[in-house]
């Protein structure tokens, strides 16, 4: 027999046995419907779940519509809100700041637009904030009050802290105070429309490990203050309009393993301090108008696997010492003005060299017979040079 007293309890009991639903007593507290091919607008009925602590609707791809302000005023107990990889659009309501218990907010991979809600600074329990791959505009608000995003909690997280914010201004709008707290390890501003310079305060992020500003329209030079970020392991600044000279700072960045500077307008000589990057595995500086000669001292790069210095204005010989780069897999020096003979010492790279691009230079004499020892070589280009046959 159903009564007014036990009827609702029974209804909740049935709901609590549904897939993805967890309850405490008669109240729904967890709802996990990730990757369930759900489509349509966000169900406004969810605002009735006033005790909801965890909501995961991620990876449904076809969930769309705007996020109603009423949702955020109703979910006072929410701790984890995971809505990434859907098609939610419109603005992020300022009422998001009412979810003061929120520890993880993941909205990446949607179609959200407009400014990032400044009320996010009320979420002082936040540990993970992921907003990348949307169409936010304007500036990132001051979130320095989110102390849980600081250095101590950062190392406990698996997820990288990245923002891809589409910016339609002519300057880099992010404040030093924001990044000094939040972005202590990972700073990703790549694939946007930034047209300013790389700010010198980047050097104050002494715990920075991964800096990516590639595929923008950044101008100016690489700031010498970057040398202070001595934990930096990855620096991607390719596909911009950065100019030279490149500062000799790399002796201060011993952990750098991936350095990509390609497709800029440096038009200067190659930095000799690269030789101190003994952990470097990839270095690309092609299509940059580089001048001068190749530093023989780069032979110290014993872990280097990819060296791309093609499509520049380099002259002189290809150093014989490069035969000592025993990890080198790809060597791209094509489309320069390199002269003299192709060094036979490259034949010592029998266990590593896979691609060797030498075309469109001014090499003379013959192809050294020692290159026949390169058992792993798959691609060898030497056309449009002056070489003939083998020794």
Task: Describe the protein's topology.
Layout: H1 7-15, E1 21-24, E2 27-32, E3 39-41, E4 54-56, E5 62-66, H2 69-74, E6 80-82, E7 87-91, E8 104-106, E9 111-114, E10 128-130, E11 135-136, H3 151-154, H4 176-182, E12 186-188, E13 210-212, E14 234-236, E15 258-260, E16 282-284, E17 306-308, E18 315-317, E19 330-332, E20 337-339, E21 355-357, E22 379-381
Parallel strand pairs: 2-4, 3-5, 4-6, 5-7, 6-8, 7-9, 8-10, 9-11, 12-13, 13-14, 14-15, 15-16, 16-17, 17-19, 18-20, 19-21, 21-22
Antiparallel strand pairs: 1-2
Tell me the CATH architecture of the domain at 33-165.
Answer: Alpha-Beta Horseshoe
The helix/strand order is HEEEEEHEEEEEEHHEEEEEEEEEEE
For the record, the CATH class of the domain at 33-165 is Alpha Beta
Oligomer state equals single chain
Q: What would you call the structural class? A: mainly beta
- Residue fraction in strands: 15-25%
Shape: elongated
Helix proportion range: under 10%
Indicate the low-confidence ranges by residue numbers.
Answer: 1-11, 149-175, 177-184
Distance between the ends: 99 Å
User: What is the number of E strands?
Assistant: 22
Mean pLDDT: 83
Walk across the major sheet and give the strand order.
12-13-14-15-16-17-19-21-22
Instruction: Output the radius of gyration.
Output: 27 Å
Could you name the CATH topology of the domain at 33-165?
Leucine-rich repeat, LRR (right-handed beta-alpha superhelix)
């Amino acid at each position: 027999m159903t009564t007014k007293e036990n009827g609702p309890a029974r209804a909740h009991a049935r709901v609590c046995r549904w897939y993805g639903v967890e309850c405490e007593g008669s109240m729904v507290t967890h709802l996990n419907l990730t990757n369930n091919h759900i489509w349509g607008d966000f169900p406004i009925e969810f605002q009735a779940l006033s005790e909801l602590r965890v909501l995961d609707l991620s990876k449904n791809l076809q969930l769309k519509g705007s996020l109603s302000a009423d949702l955020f005023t109703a979910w006072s107990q929410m701790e984890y809100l995971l809505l990434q990889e859907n098609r939610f659009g419109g603005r992020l309501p300022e009422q998001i700041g009412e979810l003061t218990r929120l520890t993880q907010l993941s909205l990446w991979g949607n179609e959200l637009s407009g400014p990032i809600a400044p009320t996010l600074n009320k979420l002082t329990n936040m540990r993970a904030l992921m907003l990348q791959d949307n169409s936010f505009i304007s500036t990132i608000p001051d979130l320095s009050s989110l102390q849980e995003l600081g250095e101590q909690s950062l190392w406990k997280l698996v997820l990288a802290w990245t923002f891809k914010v589409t910016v339609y201004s002519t300057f880099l709008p992010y404040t030093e105070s924001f990044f000094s707290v939040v972005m202590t390890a990972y700073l990703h501003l790549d694939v946007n429309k930034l047209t300013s310079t790389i700010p010198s305060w980047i050097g104050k992020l002494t715990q920075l490990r991964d800096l990516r500003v590639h595929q923008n329209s950044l101008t100016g030079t690489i700031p010498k203050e970057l040398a202070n970020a001595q934990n930096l392991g990855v620096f991607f600044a390719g596909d911009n309009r950065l100019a030279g000279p490149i500062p000799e700072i790399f002796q201060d960045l011993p952990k750098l393993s991936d350095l990509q500077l390609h497709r800029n307008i440096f038009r200067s000589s190659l930095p000799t301090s690269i030789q101190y990057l003994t952990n470097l595995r990839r270095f690309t500086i092609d299509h940059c108008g580089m001048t001068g000669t190749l530093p023989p001292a780069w032979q110290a790069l014993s872990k280097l696997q990819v060296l791309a210095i093609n499509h520049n204005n380099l002259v002189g010989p290809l150093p014989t010492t490069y035969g000592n780069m025993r990890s080198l897999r790809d060597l791209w020096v094509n489309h320069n003005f390199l002269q003299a003979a192709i060094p036979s010492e490259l034949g010592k790279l029998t266990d590593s060299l896979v691609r060797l691009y030498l075309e469109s230079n001014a090499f003379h004499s013959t192809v050294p017979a020692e290159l026949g020892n390169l058992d792993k070589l798959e691609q060898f280009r030497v056309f449009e040079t002056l070489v003939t046959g083998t020794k």
